[in-house]
Automatic annotation (TrEMBL):
<dbReference type="GO" id="GO:0006564">
    <property type="term" value="P:L-serine biosynthetic process"/>
</dbReference>
<dbReference type="GO" id="GO:0051287">
    <property type="term" value="F:NAD binding"/>
</dbReference>
<dbReference type="Pfam" id="PF02826">
    <property type="entry name" value="2-Hacid_dh_C"/>
</dbReference>
<keyword id="KW-0028">Amino-acid biosynthesis</keyword>
<keyword id="KW-0520">NAD</keyword>
<dbReference type="GO" id="GO:0004617">
    <property type="term" value="F:phosphoglycerate dehydrogenase activity"/>
</dbReference>
<dbReference type="GO" id="GO:0047545">
    <property type="term" value="F:(S)-2-hydroxyglutarate dehydrogenase activity"/>
</dbReference>
<dbReference type="InterPro" id="IPR029752">
    <property type="entry name" value="D-isomer_DH_CS1"/>
</dbReference>
<comment type="similarity">
    <text>Belongs to the D-isomer specific 2-hydroxyacid dehydrogenase family.</text>
</comment>
<dbReference type="InterPro" id="IPR036291">
    <property type="entry name" value="NAD(P)-bd_dom_sf"/>
</dbReference>
<dbReference type="InterPro" id="IPR006139">
    <property type="entry name" value="D-isomer_2_OHA_DH_cat_dom"/>
</dbReference>
<keyword id="KW-0560">Oxidoreductase</keyword>
<feature type="domain" description="D-isomer specific 2-hydroxyacid dehydrogenase catalytic">
    <location>
        <begin position="9"/>
        <end position="309"/>
    </location>
</feature>
<feature type="domain" description="D-isomer specific 2-hydroxyacid dehydrogenase NAD-binding">
    <location>
        <begin position="110"/>
        <end position="285"/>
    </location>
</feature>
<protein>
    <submittedName>
        <fullName>D-isomer specific 2-hydroxyacid dehydrogenase NAD-binding</fullName>
    </submittedName>
</protein>
<dbReference type="InterPro" id="IPR050857">
    <property type="entry name" value="D-2-hydroxyacid_DH"/>
</dbReference>
<dbReference type="InterPro" id="IPR006140">
    <property type="entry name" value="D-isomer_DH_NAD-bd"/>
</dbReference>
Length: 314
């Protein structure tokens, strides 16, 4: 019945409008951004809905302790921080906001491509430091070059569409049938191997799972052409970072919005960040005012729908 008051726990920093909207729906919200795992295990039993971003790891243990949990809501796209199989087995509903940040992520990807192709990162630092670096770092044009899009989902396709406007040729690969989309966007569907060996720019837009973990390992990195650009705005673990370090000399540059550890902590990650050919941003693909607003709307809509199902069946 609608008289039941559901309780939600939000464990990551989130647009506060989400709290207001959930409260308006009659959900009692506790907002504990940054809560530690041990504390979460202690209190999760008090809640029907758990709302997370990527920081909170929703492990089997969290799910087991959450005896009243009905819904896990991920404010974002990637579900790699949630034990999805186990949650579904326990009868929980998982909702996310898969559409909200598509163009923000695609625009950031394009930004990283442009920054690296023109060595903007080096010029910007020099000029800030009072050095007029004209002629010091040459760039390359993207026009006429080949972009390889690994993962032709919403974000990959949006990137392809933008790249077309730059006059790039598009190659695409995915584990699902993408022929319809490829045709719409004028992209050629090829194998991952062919894509890596033919692309001037390789951009990654895959979900993180067992198949994509270290997908760009040393063997695959070897296939990538000299002077190519690699951009990763998906998940850090998709690239074997240590292997990537050995290829930096022959690549044009690398743009990463994601790392294997966020924030970075290992020596090899610091080495990567400090390298002049590497541009790293702190996982900001979805961090626009526009996307954050849409994430709230999309997530609230999906939570509402899930709650209706719980009310009707549970
Ligand atoms: C996502 O999967 O939604 C993005 O990587 C952004 C985030 O993790 O917050």
């Amino acid at each position: 019945e609608s008289g039941i008051q559901y309780r939600a726990l939000i464990t990551d920093k989130i647009d506060e409008r989400l709290i207001n909207k959930l409260s308006e729906m009659g959900v009692a919200v506790d907002y504990k951004p940054g809560i530690q795992h041990e504390e979460l295990l202690k209190i999760v039993e008090n809640y029907d809905i758990l709302v997370v971003r990527s920081r909170t790891k929703v492990t089997r243990e969290v799910i087991d302790r959450g005896a009243s949990l009905k819904i896990i809501a991920r404010a974002g796209v990637g579900l790699d921080n949630i034990d999805v199989d186990y949650a579904l087995k326990r009868g929980l509903t998982i909702v996310n906001s898969p559409n909200a940040a598509t163009y923000s992520a695609a625009e950031l990807t394009l930004s990283l491509m442009l920054i690296i192709s023109r060595n903007l990162h080096l010029h910007l630092i020099d000029v800030k430091n009072g050095k007029w670096s004209k002629g010091l770092y040459h760039g390359i044009e993207l026009r006429g070059k080949t972009l390889g899009v690994v993962g032709f989902g919403r974000i990959g396709r949006a990137v392809a569409n933008y790249a077309k406007a730059l006059g790039m040729r598009i190659l695409a690969t995915d584990v699902v049938d993408i022929s319809r989309y490829a045709e719409e966007l004028g992209a050629s569907v090829v194998s991952l191997t062919e894509l890596l060996s033919r692309s001037d720019v390789v951009t990654l837009h895959v979900a993180l799972n067992k198949e994509t973990y270290h997908m760009l390992n040393d063997d695959r990195l070897k296939l990538i052409k000299d002077n190519a650009i690699i951009v990763n705005t998906s998940r850090g673990e998709v690239i074997d970072t240590k292997a990537l370090l050995n290829h930096l000399d022959r690549l044009w540059g690398v743009g990463l919005d994601v790392l294997e550890h966020e924030p970075p902590r290992e020596d090899w990650e610091i080495k990567l960040i400090q390298h002049p050919k590497v541009v790293v941003t702190p996982h900001i693909g979805a961090e626009t005012i526009d996307a954050q607003g849409r994430i709230v709307d999309e997530l609230v809509f999906n939570i509402q729908e899930a709650l209706e199902r719980v009310r009707n069946h549970g």
